[in-house]
């Protein structure tokens, strides 16, 4: 056993050196060693820095949710390291905001710059890099190295060690640099991360060094000792010296930075007897004997290495030896022996670490190897140390123990503070002189492969102040069709938007496909209106007409109203031309009963109807048609020129229909309150001038470019009804004047805020309702789907898809989706566009003007940055109210004077009556017929028809407004004064004002029976007049 102990003592120095090297124990003592000055030719300044260094400020980072970020960083760093370039990462925090820089140091810096830019763009599209100018780089590096001018010597703390994953399953990544920045929020500090690429040849040499070390140590991992009485003579010392040399050579091969020179003479002499151990292929054998030996030798060796890491060794040696051995052996006839198997655990662990290093080097053969270290700088030692320890804790993982980790501090008082900072200023690892573990010149760096480097130099995974980090889903990079179809006309909607960047790849929509309808949605301010502007502008270029029905904002008239070929109509004469439309009119080719069905469905869709209300309303509508001479079964009219009812006639007929019904008084009262009140509201206020018999030419509304502004109507129900009636009239116009079926796109209708007309309803039924509103909405959506055969396309626009009937989304071929914050809305419309979960979430973060575009014949949805519409022509409309009132006064005075004087020009009177859109249709037609036939006495002038004459007067003079104004009087004299004063605003001081007043009051009694008593009192006061 003593022989074995002697062998262990002789191997011990080499084993200690290997242990120190494998554990990188020297890294803990770097601050105690002298630093090597930077070579003059490696000092960069503003004049030459551009030849070696490129630095980019990262302004935004974009990640793809479906891709491994670390693996993409491996691509970037490996591309950079393939040409032996250095990677530089700089973090600079002023306490509130952090700037993040990525760069390279290279002798081929232009190529390295291009590699970094292209690789970042390819792996992290959308990430914004801003190249620093030389002057900006100099300013940055001076600030990082020196800090504030008052504190010229910043503390430097280095971090060395092998980074590793904490979560080997990679289910989560918690080692992003945002953890460091968040931990140091409010502190001023800087960090420089340097990684120098190791060449392939160097990797091979390093690998060979580890292999040699393994081969040498493995001989002594397990030994076998055999003891007996036999003795022999052997030399063990020479063997132990050979082992020491071999291990030291291996250590040298694993270093990239070495420089040494050795000259020496050795002289040794040994006499006496000794016991030792001899190495054999089978183990260690014990022996004893006497020997005498003398050895003399000369050796000379030099080793050189440059900073690039290439090691080259040349050496010569000469050895003269003389060996005299005297030995005698005595062997006894009988012997006794035993064997002991011993494993050195230290060697076993060293061999296991070598295996791990070799695995890492094998990986590096494919992905690259780097000399890496991190350096933290701050104005005080505490801040720099805290930043360094936090960083070290973040990057260390389950396999970091393979090699030692160290933190070294050079505070402002340290003798090497300035040289260290000077090396860092050149973005180089500081180099140190040491003399241990067989090493001479070292740096604070450790060897890491590219996978490990992506942990040490990872990018922030979450946004920090100064650097937004965005996760984005990937969409199609271009429009790909399921089947190639010839597209006659296309519109340029915008450019492809990919991972936060606009690409010069156009997104084009097939214009004819718009006949299959389009759905556009997006929250307020997302760019929805601009998208529609762009589409309408493109349609105008190919001479396709449009109709915009806008119930809110009134923007379209201020964008397109100024174009000469665009007509604008509204509900307020002060702002636009008046929209005049008669809900009861229909084209000749449409059957009256078809029209009635559609009209009732529109009422059902826009008003809450229950029980028998739809039936009662339908009966009243049929009655007003009959009163105008319509034969409902044949759709023929008794009059030579067909007469159409008006809303005022429906107001008069509806109460009578309800009264004739067999319902209880309570039900009748409820129906009158619900139906009559709603219908009557359509004959007052703004709508009193809209729902009239003298309507705008349908060809102007439906065959030309037209904008209908309904934004000034306050009631949502009323907006819905007006939109529904316009839609019904459009449908009947297309059906009546269709030249063929399945024609290409000819006209597009934009339904803004479409939920007013296509509101989503619950699919429930009650005892009194069969979901009438839902069925009516379904009828409208079906009509939209069917109208494509006439070349009519609809663009359905709404900011909340969940408010719309699902069929309105389902029956559209083109979907354009802008930013939608509500998850329900995103799922509803995104599912119709075939989006996955990540893409659905992306909709909530879309920038203004960016939309998801999808057509049913596309392979993938794409993101489109819609072109900004830059050619608005605001609507200019001047309304001279005084002139209009003056003209109206003249017309009213002329008509009333003509009728009351019984002297009139038939042609002029007929023209004036035709222009009166407020007069009851039946009464109007009767008057026109009598005037045209020169009746000796008009019916309205016959005795007893004062109410009829009052109705004619009321179409020019509002009896309701005048009586409401005059009724505030306390005396009849005051009443007459106010009445005449009000009349004068309509017709001036008219010679027949008393007759006009009396007829208006009689007509008003017909409308409001409660006024009858007041009229009788007034009549008695006047002591004359008509008794009613």
TrEMBL record:
Coiled-coil stretches noted in the UniProt entry, renumbered to this chain: none
Annotated SUPFAM superfamilies: P-loop containing nucleoside triphosphate hydrolases (SSF52540)
Source organism, top-level taxon: Bacteria
Signal peptide: none
Biased composition (Polar residues): 255-277, 289-300, 321-337
Amino acid composition bias (Low complexity), ranges on this chain: 301-320
Residues covered by the Helicase HerA central domain: 501-725
The protein, known as: Helicase HerA central domain-containing protein
Source species: Priestia koreensis
